[in-house]
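# step 3/5: fold
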Amino acid sequence: MILFVASTLDKAGVTIADKVISLYDFKPSGSLFHGNPIYTKEVNSKEVKLIWIKDEPVNAQYIDGLFKPELVVFLSRHSSRSGIPTLSVHTPGNFRDASLGGLPGKLSISPANAMRNALLEMARGREEYSLEYEVSYECTHHGPSLDVPTMFVELGSTKKQWLDKRAATVVAMAAVSAVKGERKVEAVLGIGGPHYNMKFTNLALKGKYAFGHIIPNYMIPQVDLNMIRCCISRTLEKVEKAVLDWKGIKGSFKSDVLSYLSELDLKVVKV
């Protein structure tokens, strides 16, 4: 079973979930969760449930224990100070502290190809609907820290975008594309660069790689050998390669990163 999760506190999540239900003809199952109907639909012979929660998505640490899903897709808002209209995808988890939900030092399992399929659909939908939005991977960040493959598809970055039904349609299509799992390429670990890494995004869109966990430059000082090992083990697919945003890694940390990757016998690609 695959689980879509939207929060009643999240305007974008509500908008996206409404589009999932209407576009794909999800039906009430007759059961409730957090006082709201559970919707269901079969997608590519897979049961998909859509639930509403009363908490912020980052605090839904209980979800995998209650539903035992094979994949969790959070339908969520994206917020940023820049206010740039953005469609994004990422895995949740914390490299160190848990200041925004989840558990300290624990990553969710990253479904690299499911995220890439969502990203591809976001890029395709942006053109179809003539949206002036960025499409991007985000690095691994915030909660929850779940023991099942987990991803966020997000619509942002301000209230104007959260209520944009055309953009929400594209995010809804991206969520369903993640479920279908029709396109698969090599899964890799991404290291370096900014929070929104367009180099990694473009590589994925061109069909080169599917990125699982992404460690941005600002988190590298807090990441050690064990955490990089965790990034590999907490990816759904087998990871044998790390792609480095080489100019996006501070010089003083480059040798440490290369040492860790050598210790783990990972192939290195610099971009």
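# step 4/5: annotate
Helices lie at 11-24, 63-67, 112-128, 159-162, 165-180, 198-205, 225-233, 251-263.
# step 5/5: archive (pending)
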